[in-house]
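[recover] target loaded
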């Protein structure tokens, strides 16, 4: 059985900007193994967020293949890509994007409910995940009742509830102080190793990139 989770082959992506064609990703070829942690580094505008969107099927390349567990997601229909994201990929961004009127428990349970699972089952799973990341006593708190670090931990819990193969993160520590960055990274790395989840993290923070298995410089 192959240990490769993601394989990019000859990936190109460009955008039309001010009547000019801007090449963002040019003939990208690389592999990400199961359970591996990868940092995407480079200056702003070098294509880190674009690559994350391509890997998640949120956008499509101009050409090339993006294989996930051997399946070329570029060939998926829009609905197939949506199902793929729900079941195979978790997301954590710089801003937590938690629903303000939902409790931590409800926010974490939502991806499971959207995947078609029974609501009570989803809530029970969410409770277990929140307990695992040390937020058992915050399950009924809404986002405005949580600290910045707690909100990001809830976002991580939400990203793993469907037991994804990969978590994609775009500057996940951008709004956190150094102590919270260290705590969050320890949590993420431990979860990745425990559950064999591949981590793909776009970051400018050396406190993040230094903790990862390897870096991909997009410049």
């Amino acid at each position: 059985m192959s240990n490769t989770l993601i394989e990019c082959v000859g990936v190109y992506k460009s955008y039309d900007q001010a009547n000019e064609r801007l090449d963002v990703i040019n003939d990208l070829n690389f592999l990400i193994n199961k359970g591996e942690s990868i940092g995407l580094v480079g200056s702003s505008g070098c294509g880190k967020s674009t690559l994350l969107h391509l890997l998640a099927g949120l956008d499509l390349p101009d050409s090339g293949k993006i294989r996930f567990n051997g399946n070329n997601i570029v060939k998926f229909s829009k609905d197939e890509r949506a199902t793929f994201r729900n079941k195979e990929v978790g997301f954590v961004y710089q801003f937590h994007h938690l629903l303000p009127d939902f409790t931590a428990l409800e926010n974490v349970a939502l991806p499971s409910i959207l995947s078609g699972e029974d609501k009570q089952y989803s809530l029970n799973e969410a409770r277990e995940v929140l307990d695992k990341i040390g937020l058992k006593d915050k399950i009924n708190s809404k986002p405005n009742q949580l600290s910045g670090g707690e909100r990001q931990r809830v976002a991580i819990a939400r990203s793993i509830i469907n037991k994804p193969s990969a978590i994609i993160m775009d500057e996940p520590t951008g709004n956190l102080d150094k102590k919270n960055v260290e705590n969050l990274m320890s949590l993420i790395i431990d979860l990745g190793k425990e559950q064999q989840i591949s981590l793909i993290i776009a970051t400018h923070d050396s406190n993040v990139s230094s903790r990862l298995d390897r870096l991909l410089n997009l410049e």
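[recover] notes: Residues 4-217 form a domain with the Rossmann fold fold (CATH 3.40.50.300).
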